[in-house]
Specification:
This protein has 3 helices and 5 strands. By secondary structure, it is of the alpha+beta class. Strands 2-1-3-4-5 form a 5-stranded mixed β-sheet, with helices on both faces. It starts with 26 loop residues before the first helix and ends in a 7-residue tail after the last strand. The relative contact order is 0.18.
Length: 150
């Protein structure tokens, strides 16, 4: 029997967006950018925002699409995006389609796990955000950093 070898190439597809060159100075800035990408989705989506050393967004990546109430991505999926984009740091965000921004115990556990993975390879996770709904002009969200989990 003949042996067949498969050659796999890892590549990144880049789509231009207005988010490039936005600087994140606060959790609110990160939440607004995340809302632009995933705020209206009907199921949980985990977004990775890759930042340069001046906290300028250099890439935003939908790392995982989950169900209506769950999205769990493996740390390698998040780190792959950061490494391919030469990120100095990153922020993760996911939304709750219910509009509720309260973090679950699982959200906190996943955030801490991703922070450890980033620390291990030298790419700092600055925050983990849960995006809720927008009421009039105010976006509801929760920040693991502000809540003392990171």
């Amino acid at each position: 029997m003949e042996t067949i070898y498969e050659i796999v190439q890892i590549k990144q597809v880049v789509l231009e967006s207005q988010v490039n060159n936005k600087v994140i100075r606060s959790p609110e800035d990160g939440a607004e950018i995340a809302y632009e990408f995933i705020g209206q989705d009907d199921r949980e989506v985990l977004l990775v925002m890759c930042l340069n050393n001046k906290n300028r967004v250099i890439a935003a990546h939908r790392a995982h699409v989950g169900s209506i109430n769950q999205s769990v991505a493996h740390p390698r999926d998040i780190m792959k995006s950061c490494i391919l984009n030469n990120a100095a740091s990153f922020i993760i965000a996911h939304q709750h389609p219910s509009g509720d921004e309260i973090m679950s115990a699982e959200d906190i556990q996943v955030g801490k796990r991703l922070k450890s993975a980033g620390d291990l390879i030298g790419i700092e996770m600055l925050d983990a955000l849960v995006i809720g709904e927008r009421n009039s002009s105010r976006l509801r969200f929760a920040s693991m950093k502000e809540e003392g989990y990171l």
